[in-house]
Amino acid sequence: MRKLNWLPLTVLGSALLLSGCVTSGNSVNNNQPWHMLPMAVPLQPTTQQEVQLARIDQILLRDDLTEKDRAQLFYERGLINDSLGLRDLARLDFNRSLSYNPAQPDVFNILGVYFTQSGMYDAAYEAFDSSLELNEQHQFAERNRGIALYYGGRYDLAVRDLLKHYNDNENDAYRALWLYLAELEKDGPEKAQQGLRARYDRSDKLDWGWLLARMYLNDISEDAFFREVMNTSTDNAQLAERLCEGYFYLAKRYQAQGDINSAVALYKLAMSGNVYDFVEHRYSMLELSRIAYDLSHPPSS
Length: 301
Fold this sequence. Notes:
mainly alpha, 15 helices
């Protein structure tokens, strides 16, 4: 299992990756003009979010709140801070919420995601286990534990969790995509591709995310994918969300092919829209940190 020291890697990621100076002997697509790809205006805090934060701050000053009410308010404020990218403040609020009410599967779930982002996989497993002990039907905790197992290199267990998660809703494209990524590591590209093809064929194909699966299956080109994103997004927020997803999964594809330059560029693009509460945004920084670690710790000959 890969163990990441998060703070040093954040600094290393800034130095190595944000400058764009990444090299790889296996790069297969050095000339792709990633700067020409579509972009959304980065999402900004809304007036509604600012009003909600102010309202919660005011209510928390009251003396007549029950511990359960106070726990709920800290949780809600944490979610808003998380959606704004204020993750340290959000984590503090989630921990405060648990101190007032420790029986909250949703809080353990989001803390598990934070641990995964920080490369603290054992802590993530424990958090997701706590969430599932409190609510064994918690779909997000089930998925997120599978993703944590995937990043922790425990691919057999990741496939187990993600397969169960997929079987709970076979029409959800994102469940099929994460299962594919885990199977890619466990079983190799041919078998993983066969599995994704079978799941795509069985689906009702209504979920927008199946367009991503079609790109993975080479049913449509990257250009056609981005044209579809631009033509069907109804506003800037939806455009930012779809581009965040598209750039992340495309980055995973190039990374699997050994094209680290393109993967780094695409992970940066996935983060550029400020869609902080999407898993694709959350794990893009983790991916960049892992790449930075690998580049700074080449295997000894």
